[in-house]
Write a structure and sequence with these properties.
By secondary structure, the protein is of the alpha/beta class. The chain is built from six helices and twelve strands. It folds into two domains: 84 residues, membrane protein fhac (Ubiquitin-like (UB roll)), CATH 3.10.20; 132 residues, Cell division protein FtsQ/DivIB (Rossmann fold, 3-Layer(aba) Sandwich), CATH 3.40.50. β4 and β5 form a beta hairpin.
């Protein structure tokens, strides 16, 4: 019983100590100003804009940030402004008060999550990446992503509504993910696929019933092309229902 009373008293003393310490710290740090910006990026993201560019976005959102009272810094507004950059999916902005031996200083922390590209578009309508949500990501000399490339003459709406589900299907299928490197769309929205192995072209036609067309194509791979016939055909068409038409060189 005595042990329980002593344990409870210890908890109460610790709680009282923390309350007093925090109250003292709050009074001491009341007039802390922002002295620095710290930016945190994820190491494994394929697309990342530079810390200098992010700092520029932050300073553009609040031109009086450095030297401002930390209580007056609007983190939500800064988040919204930073997230307007097309390569950024999410920005988390938070305040940190640090103490050295003599005083307090304010630090604005920025944690960035970039968009993850699913498709590279090089079309008559523009040159850009799309993420899995259909959001555009600008192309930059500062980064690149190893994703499927779509070329040809098509709109952004077609890329979002038609191509992205097709690309997701390929990415989720280990066999086709290892086979296809490029998608070309002609003016009639007919699809030509360039494989990684061999130099033949796969004529898919429209994207209607594409899972069935790819199943037929895979069967052709397993029954014919696997027998060292990779260079025998210049074009393989699966655009017609339940048919595989192979044209020799």
């Amino acid at each position: 019983m005595l042990r329980k009373i002593l344990k409870l008293a210890g908890y109460l003393f610790l709680a009282a100590f923390l309350v007093v310490t925090l109250a003292f710290s709050a009074r001491e740090s009341r007039n802390v100003t922002c002295r620095n910006i710290q930016i945190e990026l994820r190491e494994n993201e394929s697309i990342r804009i530079s810390k200098d560019e992010i700092a520029r976005l932050v300073n553009a959102a609040d031109k009086q940030l450095i030297g401002k009272d930390m209580r007056l810094v609007d983190t939500e507004m800064i988040e919204l402004e930073v997230e307007k950059h097309q390569a950024i999916h999410k920005a988390e902005v938070y305040k940190v008060v640090a103490r050295d031996s003599t005083s307090y200083s304010g630090i604005l922390g920025i944690r960035i999550r970039h968009r993850e590209p699913a498709l590279r578009v090089m079309s008559a309508g523009g040159n850009y990446y799309l993420d899995k949500y259909g959001e555009k990501i600008p192309v930059s000399v500062n980064y690149s992503a190893n994703v499927l490339v779509a070329t040809g003459d098509f709109s952004v709406e077609y890329a979002r509504q038609e191509l992205l589900p097709f690309v997701k299907f390929i990415d989720d299928n280990p066999f086709w993910k290892a086979q296809i490197k490029q998608i070309h769309i002609d003016g009639n929205e007919e699809i030509l696929l360039t494989p990684l192995v061999g130099d033949q072209i796969i004529e898919l036609g429209s994207l209607n019933n594409f899972p069935e067309k790819l199943r037929n194509m895979k069967a052709f791979y397993e029954q014919v092309l696997v027998q060292n016939n990779w260079d025998k055909y210049r074009l393989i068409s699966v655009k017609y229902k339940n048919q595989v038409i192979a044209k020799k060189r």
